[in-house]
Amino acid sequence: MIASSPELANELRKIVGHDHVLTENDLTAGYSVDWTGRFVGSTPIVVRPSNTEETASVVELLNRNSIPLVPQGGNTGLVGGSIPMSREVLLSLKRLNTLEPVDDLALQVTVGAGATLAQTQAHVRDHNFEIGVDLAARDSCTIGGMIATNAGGINVLRYGAMREQLIGVEAVMSDGTVIKHLEGLEKDNTGYHLPSLLAGSEGTLAIITKARLRLRPRLTEKVTALIAFESVHDAVAVSTRLRQKLPSLHALEAIFSSAMTLVSAHIGAQIPIGPNGKAWLLVEVASGTDPFEEFQQALQNCGDTILDVAVATDDRSRSKLWQFREQITEAIAVTGTPHKLDVTIGLSRLEKFIDEIPKVVKRADPNSLTYLFGHLGDGNVHVNVVGIDGSEPSNVVESAVLGYVASLGGSISAEHGIGIAKKSYLHLNRTSDELRFFRNIKKALDPNNIMHPNCMLSD
Ligand code: FAD
Ligand code: MLT
Ligand code: ZN
């Protein structure tokens, strides 16, 4: 049995080489704090394998010695799940970044778990393909992390979340065994479907080392519009109409007033349209042929519920409009340390929710500010709460917001996962029978409880 951290570090160096075992605080600190700065942990060792075999040997060694680990990809997760909060060994997967040749016939590609989304997008774009999931953290988030969180992003209404992109995985199980199913067969009913189980497992069941992904056609003809509304009710009604009438609908995002004011100031721009509006939709259509007319027709059919609209057809103006949506996360981060509550609400209850939630937050913590935005096409609202002076809001905010969401039949995690931040609220959406079943799966796949033991499931 390994008796000390220095001894463990030496054993790990034999597997991954001297340079890829970090023990000095200066070097490990960056791996121990999350993107928002809310979750600050610490680790005795960061280990950075370069391939599947090294990863398997590392996990086998840790399992043999019952030493817990936290897997980490790009460290852009927003629920504290990538952070070693209990001095676990930090397993960084970023070096597993191979990009295998694009399979033009199958419309698939196999990539290493450490490849970033942007690297993968660039790799397939030369072959006129896209990855079905896209999100603002694309330059840093990794394919492995996206699978582990079942990431959503801006194109879910067209292609589904990460689970729907996944046709096979290679994974290291808790005893170091490598399970590989990367043949890429669309039809393959030969037993349990490990990719589905690992999507959203947040590092608690296995380490994803490679993924076989479906590819989507690269749609070069895009039109983007920012649409202003006098009421949330009108924005929701138009969003439903566009979902019904626009086959080329590619993204349907929402920005509510306080987030619009904040992001405009952050990027140094005026609110481009409807300065006194209550809600804005950022809508993108994409097709192989020009979708402009179809889009224009659909907007005209929405009648006079639209306050104002700004349309962009060239890349430069389109990305200017996107800034109002994609820069919100950063705009909030510079005001302080947010509590990020990422929820789904049925569309019939959304107007009430948007109206009520700032009041629910104020009652829980009068010294806080609420920003609302999200992926309206999926009923996904991001409720971000920051203390007025930039400090963290009270934890009471969490229970007030998530309790209210559950009372409306919504989900307490739409796309970011449970991680550390929400594990004590999982019972709001899952029955005790379901949670017992989850624990049984965890126990069967990880009997020594070394795979991210403090994430997602409470004891
Ligand atoms: P990490 O943060 O490193 O890890 C996330 C979780 O996955 C952790 O539990 C970790 O233990 C586990 N994990 C990581 N790699 C592996 C692996 N190889 N095997 C097993 N487990 C692993 N998310 C969305 O869903 N939609 C968005 O629109 C979105 N936008 C964002 C915008 C910004 C600006 C930022 C900062 C974040 C955003 N996110 C969004 C959150 C985040 O980018 C996603 O959750 C992403 O999938 C995390 O990937 P990562 O590689 O950074 O994973
Ligand atoms: C987004 O949609 O912008 C993200 O999920 C990030 C966030 O919630 O801040
Ligand atoms: Zn999001």
How does this structure look, described?
This protein has helices at 5-16, 25-28, 52-64, 117-125, 143-149, 156-159, 162-165, 194-198, 232-245, 257-267, 292-300, 315-326, 328-333, 350-364, 396-407, 432-445, and strands at residues 21-22, 46-47, 69-72, 89-92, 108-112, 129-130, 166-172, 178-181, 207-214, 216-217, 221-229, 249-256, 279-287, 306-312, 339-344, 368-375, 380-387. The chain is of the alpha+beta class and 459 residues long. Helix 14 packs antiparallel against helix 15. Helices cover 33% and strands 21% of the residues. The structure holds flavin-adenine dinucleotide, D-malate and zinc ion. Zinc ion is lined by residues 375, 382, 415.
Query: What is the top-level CATH class of the largest domain?
Result: Alpha Beta
Oligomer state equals single chain
Distance between the termini: 26 Å
Computed structural class: alpha+beta
* Shape verdict: globular
Please tell me the CATH architecture of the largest domain by its name: 2-Layer Sandwich
Number of strands: 17
What is the makeup of the main sheet? 7 strands, antiparallel
Integer average pLDDT: 97
Our count of domains comes out at 4
- The residue fraction in helices comes out at 25-40%
Can you tell me the residue ranges where pLDDT is under 50 for at least 5 consecutive residues? Answer: none
Estimated radius of gyration: 22 Å
